[in-house]
Amino acid sequence: MSTNPDAPAPVTPDARPAPAPADHTPLQRTVVRVLIAGQILGGIGMGATLSLGALLAAQLSGSSAWSGMAATMSTLGAALAAVPLARLAQRRGRRRSLATGSLIAGSGAVLAITSVAVDIFPLLLLALMLLGAGSATNLQARFAATDLASTQFRARDLSIVVWSTTIGAVLGPNLFGPGETVGKALGLPPLTGAFAFSLIATVGAAVVYTVGLRPDPLLTALAAREVDPVGGTRRGGLAIVRVNPQARFAVVVIACSHATMVALMSMAPVHLRDHGATLTLVGLTISFHVAGMYALSPVFGWLADRLGRMPVILIGQSLLLVSLAIFWLAGESQTAMTVGLILLGLGWSASVVAGSALIAEVVGVHDRAALQGFSDLSMNGAGALGGALAGLILSAIGYSGLGLVTMVLAGVIVVWSAVRGTTARPVVR
């Protein structure tokens, strides 16, 4: 059997012969531009509120011990929204799905303001969960960039949309001050002014998706491929993963990489403060990490298109292992921590970009949204679990021990790649 990754894929139920698709290059360019605009707005909406969520959780609960519930509830909300939004995309298209997710996040912003006004902590937790739908929407947007992309540029287009999240994520936290000014002018409760910006941004994203994604990229791809013939049935994401080894591998790559990143990143501020770092240094270090996560994603997308998905996945896992080794061996050095967190972000970026590109092409277009939704569910679930367990591990064996333990996750991917010889051969051209 040929091992050439560029060899034609065998005809399977996921690879029915189809006529050559029309040239959708002009439409694809428009789709990518619309997704970039939506991602910037969505990033502003999330970045303007998540940090404040921790402060509000401590304020309404009366204890700083509850501040971590802000990130937990947001991640849980993203996980719960992933599959329903993917199903909506499969039935009604990306336009409806992305706009719906953005509006759900906007309702979360309104509910957050209300929760502070009436001083009800559980209502704030519900609001943060609804805001998590914004994260699920941003994740699905990267897959929307692949619906009409040609095989040779699929990872590049996906990575550009991932990169655009950086703009909103950087702008969002800088709206805290203006948000308070606007909040006072509107008579909003203290610390909730930024949620007004979040509401405007998420509604704006919904409008951008609704107006800009015409014709809908996923529905256009489905029509062009002439898939899902009479009598055919679409499968759920879990059913696909059970029978498709490449899909299973790609889902595990993304989930394990995300769990590793969240575990180390979420505990880094605590570790740095315990070793005397100032808040300014902590913020700067995390900024370097976030830059590593997104700034070079187009480079990894280009490499994934040129070298293949698997080589870039292995590059990502190698970067993760190097960063974890730095944490293990020199985790008490602030310089080493900064270098390690940058490499951690780069490893996450390479793994998620290449893994997402693989997700987009190991099944037919009729099953793609279901698999993507399951992947995002697994990704957010793994991140939530990683963040929860990281605190316990940090308390028991320290940050260096956390780095050593999480090496297992990257090791699983490397060993799996070597044993199974998984290739990045696309099923759907």
UniProtKB/TrEMBL annotation:
<feature type="transmembrane region" description="Helical">
    <location>
        <begin position="312"/>
        <end position="330"/>
    </location>
</feature>
<feature type="transmembrane region" description="Helical">
    <location>
        <begin position="249"/>
        <end position="272"/>
    </location>
</feature>
<feature type="region of interest" description="Disordered">
    <location>
        <begin position="1"/>
        <end position="24"/>
    </location>
</feature>
<dbReference type="InterPro" id="IPR020846">
    <property type="entry name" value="MFS_dom"/>
</dbReference>
<keyword id="KW-0812">Transmembrane</keyword>
<feature type="transmembrane region" description="Helical">
    <location>
        <begin position="124"/>
        <end position="145"/>
    </location>
</feature>
<dbReference type="InterPro" id="IPR011701">
    <property type="entry name" value="MFS"/>
</dbReference>
<feature type="transmembrane region" description="Helical">
    <location>
        <begin position="402"/>
        <end position="419"/>
    </location>
</feature>
<feature type="transmembrane region" description="Helical">
    <location>
        <begin position="157"/>
        <end position="176"/>
    </location>
</feature>
<feature type="transmembrane region" description="Helical">
    <location>
        <begin position="64"/>
        <end position="86"/>
    </location>
</feature>
<feature type="transmembrane region" description="Helical">
    <location>
        <begin position="377"/>
        <end position="396"/>
    </location>
</feature>
<dbReference type="Pfam" id="PF07690">
    <property type="entry name" value="MFS_1"/>
</dbReference>
<feature type="compositionally biased region" description="Pro residues">
    <location>
        <begin position="7"/>
        <end position="20"/>
    </location>
</feature>
<feature type="transmembrane region" description="Helical">
    <location>
        <begin position="342"/>
        <end position="365"/>
    </location>
</feature>
<feature type="transmembrane region" description="Helical">
    <location>
        <begin position="34"/>
        <end position="58"/>
    </location>
</feature>
<feature type="transmembrane region" description="Helical">
    <location>
        <begin position="188"/>
        <end position="211"/>
    </location>
</feature>
<feature type="transmembrane region" description="Helical">
    <location>
        <begin position="98"/>
        <end position="118"/>
    </location>
</feature>
<feature type="domain" description="Major facilitator superfamily (MFS) profile">
    <location>
        <begin position="31"/>
        <end position="429"/>
    </location>
</feature>
<protein>
    <submittedName>
        <fullName>MFS transporter</fullName>
    </submittedName>
</protein>
<dbReference type="InterPro" id="IPR036259">
    <property type="entry name" value="MFS_trans_sf"/>
</dbReference>
<keyword id="KW-0472">Membrane</keyword>
<feature type="transmembrane region" description="Helical">
    <location>
        <begin position="278"/>
        <end position="300"/>
    </location>
</feature>
<keyword id="KW-1133">Transmembrane helix</keyword>
